[in-house]
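Run log // design_07
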């Protein structure tokens, strides 16, 4: 599935609250992943209200393949566990999280799931 260009969709309106949240997400991502280039990130937040879509987009006109939604949850879980000391930071973990999101790598996702569940796939 390819994401449509959100900024060009009918009924699209920018929302100040979503814009503030979106900018905060971008700043946090750039701080957490300083090796990422500005063009590596695209963010779209949508609030659906009837026929209208309110929200925010950063590079919303970029067409690309989204990572599997569940992989985003695994990334958030891994980051939370790192922050709580439940996962040990390592180069391998960082590479796996990046591959899971950037390339939707199923092998990398399996490693993250193994680490989170303390099992093997």
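design_07 sequence
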């Amino acid at each position: 599935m390819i994401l449509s260009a959100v900024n060009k969709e009918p009924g699209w309106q920018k929302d100040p609250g979503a814009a503030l949240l979106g900018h905060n997400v971008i700043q946090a991502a750039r701080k957490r992943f300083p090796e990422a280039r500005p063009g590596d990130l695209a963010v779209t937040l949508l609030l659906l209200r009837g026929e209208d879509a309110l929200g925010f987009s950063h590079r919303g006109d970029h067409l690309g393949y989204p990572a599997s939604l569940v992989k985003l949850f695994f990334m958030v879980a891994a980051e939370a566990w790192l922050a709580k000391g439940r996962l040990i930071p390592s180069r391998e973990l960082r590479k796996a999280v990046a591959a899971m999101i950037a390339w939707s790598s199923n092998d990398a996702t399996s490693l993250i799931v193994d680490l989170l569940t303390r099992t093997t796939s």
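The two ends are 27 Å apart (CA to CA).
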